[in-house]
Each structure stands twice: as structure tokens, then as C-alpha cells.
């Protein structure tokens, strides 16, 4: 039976959960994922855990924040004057905004707090700072 190696094209089905049990991804809803091992398409620690597995095999894998989206970083939080936004624009906590920066870059940020004078934006990935658990099955190996 062919096992997963560097260069293998692998299709996996998985359910990704956080420590509190919240599902952040399910291939039952989104379909399986196909990746090439060693092509930096998934986390390196996840690739390493897949190596040696065969089609039909299952495994639970836990990635620390450092092995996935990294820790939450305070330098990814910014405060912007409320008047920087158009007065008619409704800004509420939880809303995602595309923010343009000097130099032409832009970034999706989440509003975490808003008051009459300022808006606090969080540029951390939503899963940053969380351990991620993957209950996965290797569907195919080529």
C-alpha cells in the first residue's frame, strides 16, 4: 500500500476543533482537501504528521499555536480615530473591514471595540493563539 511521502498528492477529510469543542472546519460541509506534501500548502507540522499514513488511515493531531497560526500578538491591534471612517458607515464590534495601509497594502481586520472617538481593530488571524485539533482521515495517496 502506498504511504504518504514528500511529493505525494494527498486527499484528506477532517474536522478541525478548538479546545472548547467549537468546530472551525469540517470537510463534511466544505469537502475534502487535496494537497501536495512538501509544497507548503498546509502547516509543516500537519504535513509531518501525515507522512507514513496510508489511504483509509485515521489520526487525531493537535497543533500548538506556534505550529499553526501563531500566538495572538498585541502589535496586531490598532486604534483608529472614529472620524477616519465615513460618518454614515456603520461600525460595530465583530464587523470585518478591509483596511488600506501606507505603501499600498491592505488587510482584513475585525472591529473589537468602538466608541464615539476611536475604533479598535484586530489584525490577528481568528485562530491565532489556539491549539487546533484535527480528526483526519487520509482518503487517497498518489
Largest sheet: 5 strands, antiparallel
Instruction: Please provide the ordered H/E string of secondary-structure elements.
Output: EEHEHEEEEEE
* CATH class descriptor name of the largest domain: Alpha Beta
Q: Whole-number average pLDDT?
A: 95
In terms of DSSP E residues, the strand content is: 35-45%
* Annotation, overall tally of beta strands: 9
Structural domain count: 2
Low-confidence stretches: none
If you had to describe this structure to a student in words, what would you say it looks like?
By secondary structure, this protein is mostly beta strands. The chain has two domains: 9-70 and 127-141, Chitinase A, domain 3, CATH 3.10.50; 74-122, Thrombin, subunit H (Beta Barrel), CATH 2.40.10.330. The protein contains two helices and nine strands. The strands form two sheets. Strands 1, 2, 3, 4 and 9 form a five-stranded antiparallel beta sheet that branches. The protein has a four-stranded antiparallel beta sheet with strand order 5-8-7-6, with no helix packed on it. The longest helix is centred in the N-terminal third of the chain and has 7 residues, at 44-50. It is elongated. The termini are close together.
Amino acid at each position: 500500500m502506498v504511504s504518504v511521502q514528500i511529493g505525494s498528492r494527498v486527499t484528506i477529510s477532517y474536522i478541525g476543533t478548538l479546545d472548547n469543542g467549537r468546530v472551525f472546519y469540517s470537510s463534511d460541509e466544505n469537502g475534502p482537501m487535496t494537497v501536495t506534501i512538501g509544497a507548503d500548502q498546509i502547516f509543516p507540522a500537519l504535513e509531518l504528521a501525515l507522512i507514513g499514513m496510508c489511504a483509509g488511515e485515521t489520526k487525531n493531531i493537535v497543533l500548538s499555536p506556534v505550529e499553526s497560526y501563531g500566538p495572538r500578538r498585541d502589535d496586531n491591534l490598532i486604534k483608529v480615530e472614529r472620524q477616519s471612517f465615513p460618518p454614515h458607515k456603520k461600525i460595530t464590534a465583530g464587523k470585518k473591514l478591509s483596511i488600506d495601509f501606507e505603501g499600498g497594502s491592505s488587510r482584513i481586520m475585525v472591529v473589537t471595540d468602538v466608541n464615539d472617538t476611536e475604533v479598535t481593530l484586530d489584525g490577528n488571524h481568528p485562530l491565532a493563539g489556539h491549539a487546533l485539533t484535527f480528526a483526519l482521515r487520509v482518503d487517497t495517496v498518489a
